[in-house]
């Protein structure tokens, strides 16, 4: 193992996950959805806490792994709006959140295609948007996220390194290209202050500094 790989593995294992999250990961495997990795999940919790986030949008619910991390970081009265096209995912996520001790009113689960749901959400009404769904739709998710965020809000993009493919110019498949385009759009947007983290499978974090994004 290279030193870089060893450092990454150490960072992922630095904080142990509890039984609720581990059970949700098992459920995600059964459902065929891929949750955020441990370090990325904890980063979401810390970022939500730092923002004092009360209203968060999550694009891609899965079995509720990232939902738990977000709610653990959010304001005690905050509400997570989480979108997934699969009703079975929401059923699993609801069980996960119940096991984690969150009452039903803390999560608004909307089943449907994200690009059909997002236009119905309130402009400037959210503190954070997490993008973690269909990679080919990432550029369009970003457009909606910037509209939904308040000034001072944060967009977070999971799988920003996409299994090492984004950094390899020889990789030009549709998903990798879409993620790469999204990173470029964030970097070139003057209303955003971004940072690309290597936590998990890559986490792109950007603060919205001004309207007109």
From TrEMBL:
Keyword Methyltransferase recorded:
yes
PANTHER family named among the record's database cross-references: O-METHYLTRANSFERASE RV1220C-RELATED (PTHR10509:SF85), O-METHYLTRANSFERASE-RELATED (PTHR10509)
What name does this protein carry?
Answer: O-methyltransferase
- Gene Ontology biological process terms from the UniProt entry: methylation
Enzyme Commission number(s): 2.1.1.-
**Record's superkingdom?**
Bacteria
GO molecular function terms listed in the Swiss-Prot or TrEMBL record:
methyltransferase activity
Among Pfam families, the record links this protein to: Methyltransf_3
**Signal peptide region:** none
**Broad class of enzyme this protein falls into:** transferase
Keywords assigned by UniProt, alphabetized: Methyltransferase, S-adenosyl-L-methionine, Transferase
> InterPro entries, from UniProt?
Cation-dep_OMT, SAM-dependent_MTases_sf, SAM_O-MeTrfase
């Amino acid at each position: 193992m290279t030193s870089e790989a060893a450092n990454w593995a150490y960072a992922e294992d630095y904080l142990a996950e509890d039984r609720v999250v581990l059970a949700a990961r098992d459920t995600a495997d059964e459902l065929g959805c891929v949750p955020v990795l441990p370090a990325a999940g904890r980063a979401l919790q810390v970022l939500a806490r730092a923002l004092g986030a009360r209203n968060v949008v999550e694009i891609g619910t899965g079995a509720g792994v990232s939902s738990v991390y977000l709610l653990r970081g959010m304001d005690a009265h905050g509400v997570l709006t989480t979108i997934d096209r699969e009703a079975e995912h929401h059923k699993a996520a609801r069980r996960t959140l119940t096991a984690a001790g969150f009452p039903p009113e803390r999560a608004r689960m909307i089943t449907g295609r994200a690009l059909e749901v997002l236009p119905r959400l309130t402009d400037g009404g959210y503190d954070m948007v997490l993008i973690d769904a269909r990679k080919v739709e990432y550029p369009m998710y970003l457009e909606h996220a910037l509209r939904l965020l308040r000034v001072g809000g944060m967009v977070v993009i999971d799988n920003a390194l996409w299994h090492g493919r984004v950094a390899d110019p020889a990789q030009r498949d549709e998903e990798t290209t879409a993620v790469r385009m999204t990173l470029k759009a964030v970097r070139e947007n003057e209303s955003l202050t971004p940072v690309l983290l290597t936590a998990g499978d890559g986490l792109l974090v950007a603060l919205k500094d001004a309207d007109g994004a």
